[in-house]
Each structure stands twice: as structure tokens, then as C-alpha cells.
């Protein structure tokens, strides 16, 4: 069996370099049987979409639609949110605000949304723009009046605005605040997974500080656990491995196994003694091999006999995702454990594409089309539900069609409501999950921490939900039909007429679609064939 695990792990690593077209063909084969239920699934998805639209969507969803990444104002907000809270000096902060606001047309957004939150935000942003750039209309009374306020006031107002936006995604600044704030959702039937905010540790001192915050959080959660409740109905804690070691990378494997593994084992033992599960959060594709090595070493330790709380997070946008689930299933069979697996679509897409191009990799480790990620998610969900003895599936999604797909798959495999759950982010997908939480359990992924630790998490949320192709963005667009929002991922892929239209990282300077080559081609000086 050990050799089988080794072979499967090698296959996971190799899948990252598979041509996307070949990977998609394999996904279509895995999901072919699902098409027999299409009519009922689409009908269910359309009902969910119609109910969501009747609910008019929450304020943050409406805001992300109005200020999407296809608008100059949305991009300005993204740049500001990403940078403002970490700028140490007032002079630079003032220059940033002026640069991002003076040419934006905030007034164009007033009245375009039915939601008061968006219109109020647009008024505030417009007035900020007036304040930082009065030369556009020097006779304007409002501009003259606000020049008396001064740039420090504007700066503080914008900082508070960014904090307000961020607080929409954070349950509490401390674990005690979060546990208290979550009581109302628990009464509705929700479960919680708590995540201590913070990015990768840059020193051992930072890693030890994160370690202590996890210890403290587990101890606090332990006091709230109802031990009479089913194990998977209890709260959960998510752990970011790069927060526990400053050199969490494959090139430092021996050091990671010697130093990080004992820290991780200590935390999981604390969780086990507290009667709760742990989820190891997914990170960049370059860290998947070292995460698998850690998880395998952890899972094969005999101290976990009878404990089904070792959780793994799988990102469907990685081409290796189906092979990774095969490896996890084999590991579960070898150890006799059942792994809770959170299936997500993935939150590092922009960084993965950029890293592959900068490093000149021979392929992208993630899918370059959203439709392919949706199809991969469906294929992975099928594998999870086919193996109930190996996995407790946890489906993280804000997409109505995905929920309809999962419920149909679960019914086809005779998995009842005790055998899986849905998950959503705190601050997102409230209306969609409120509609199903009485039928299928749902867990809220709830970040906990101070605003200074929020930036990276906030930007990932704004990027994935503000993107023009996201379900959250499209749901708020009246021009997008319920049929479009309910379309099968299989049909969406089949209608793509797929080709590898994003140049491979090694070809970005020689592919005809690159800006440099476009100039040469238009000048008639060279002809370069498509690399595939």
C-alpha cells in the first residue's frame, strides 16, 4: 500500500503540468453520468436563483456588483483597500488617496442600484473624490466647503471605510467576540469553522505567536462544545500551515518535518481532546507537495485511532485536484480514518498565474477558464460522495447551480443530510444558505482577528466575488437570465470550443497574442504559429 501511496503522490505532482485540454477531457469523462439528471437539477437551480433575486441580495453583494473589476472605480477601490491600511506615513497615504480618487466618476453610480448600501457608499465616495480634487470644479460649493476639513480627516475617513468593508467579512476581533457574535447564526442551524487571521510567518517569532493564538482559540472553542452533538456538527478550527513556520516550502522539507510537524501535532491533539475537528487550509500550488508530506506523516501516526477530525482542503481550480482526492482516499483506507474534506474552487488564481509566468513554468498549475474550474468541482464532488467511508464532504460554495448539483449527486449516491454539509464565508452567501440550512447542514467559515491582519484575506474576497464571471457578480446583473445562471458546467465547457488561448508561461513573449508580438505581426515582419 505504501508504494501505491507513493505512486499516487507522484501522479498528483505530475498533474500540475498536464495540458489543460487533456485535463478537461478527463473531467468530462468523470462527470458524464451526471447529465442524466440535468432537467431536475436545472429546475432546482433556477428556483434558488429566483428566490435569491426576489431577496434583492445583501448590501455587500450589491456593492461588489456595482463596483466590479470592470469599472475604473472598482479598480481604484481595490488598489486602495490593498494598500491604505499598511501605508505607515500620512504623506504617502494622502498621495495614494488623491491618485485613486481624483479621476474616478463616482457620481455615475448613484441611483443605479436599488440597494441603499450602494447608494450611500456612492455618495460618500463621490464627496471624497470632490474633497481630494477640487480643481475639477472650483466653483462647486461642496468642494470649497470640504477643503476646510483637511486631508488628515479624509485619510482617516477612508481608513475607517476600508475597515468597515473588511468588518463585513470578519466575525470578531478575538475568538471570544467571534463565539459570542456567532450565537444568532447557530440558532438558525449553522455550524462554524474559525480561522485565525494572518498570513505566512516571516520569522520563528511570528510562527510561535501564531501557534499561541491557535492554542488560545482551541481552548476557547472547547468551552462551548456540546459533546452530545454529532462530531461533525461541532465547531471546527482551520489552520494555515505557513503561519506555523517561516520556511514552509518543499525545498526545506526536512526542516519542516522536524519543526512544523510537532507544532501541528500538538494543535491537533488539543483539538482531539476538545472534541473538535481541524482543517488544514489550502495554499498555493507550489506548497501542495509539502502539505501532502505533512498530512501523510500526521495521519499515519497511530495516536489518531478513532479520531475522524483530520481535515484537508482541496482547491478544484488545481489540475491536480482529482488525483489528490484519489491519494487522500488511499491514505484513508490505509489508516482506517475518515477525513473531512472541504472542497473549494480556489482563491489564489491571480497569484498562481503570475507566479507561473514569472518563473517560466511549462504549464499553469490551475485552470485558466472559470468553466473548467466549475467542471473540476463537479468531478471532485462526485469522487467525495462516492467514498463515504473515506470522506466527510464539505462543499464550500456561493453558487446556486453548484448547490443543486451537489444535492442531486448526494441523492444519486444515497447520502443523506448527515453525510455531508455545505459551507459559506462569513459575510457572503447568507440568503442562499439560509434557504437550505434547514434541509442540509451548512457551516460558516469565520475569520477572527484585528483589522491590521485583514488585508490579504479581504483582497482575496474582493477579487473572487468582484470578478465579472463570479456567480455573486452575475446574480446582481438583471441582464443575465436565470437560465444562464443555472447552466450546467458540463454544457458550459462543451460550448466553449476549447483551445489553449492563454499562452503558456514559457511562450508569453513569443505567442502572437502578446503585446510585443502583436506589434511585430501588425508590422508584417514575422509570423509565429500557435505553440500547440
Question: What this model shows, in words?
Answer:
There is one protein chain. The chain has 532 residues and is α/β, with parallel strands linked by helices. The protein has helices at residues 2-15, 20-31, 38-54, 59-66, 72-83, 90-101, 116-132, 141-147, 151-167, 175-181, 183-188, 204-222, 253-274, 288-299, 321-335, 349-359, 370-386, 400-412, 430-434, 455-466, 471-475, 482-485, 489-494, 515-522, and strands at 191-196, 236-239, 277-280, 310-315, 339-344, 391-396, 421-425, 442-448. It is 52% helix and 8% strand. The chain has an 8-stranded parallel beta barrel with strand order 1-2-3-4-5-6-7-8, surrounded by 4 helices. The longest helix has 22 residues, at 253-274. The chain is globular, with a radius of gyration of 24 Å. The two termini are 38 Å apart. Mean pLDDT is 81; it is low at 116-146 and 515-532.
Q: How many helix segments?
A: 24
Shape, per Cα inertia axes: globular
What is the average of the pLDDT values? Answer: 81
CA-CA gap between termini: 38 Å
Give the helix/strand layout.
Blueprint: H1 2-15, H2 20-31, H3 38-54, H4 59-66, H5 72-83, H6 90-101, H7 116-132, H8 141-147, H9 151-167, H10 175-181, H11 183-188, E1 191-196, H12 204-222, E2 236-239, H13 253-274, E3 277-280, H14 288-299, E4 310-315, H15 321-335, E5 339-344, H16 349-359, H17 370-386, E6 391-396, H18 400-412, E7 421-425, H19 430-434, E8 442-448, H20 455-466, H21 471-475, H22 482-485, H23 489-494, H24 515-522
Parallel strand pairs: 1-2, 1-8, 2-3, 3-4, 4-5, 5-6, 6-7, 7-8
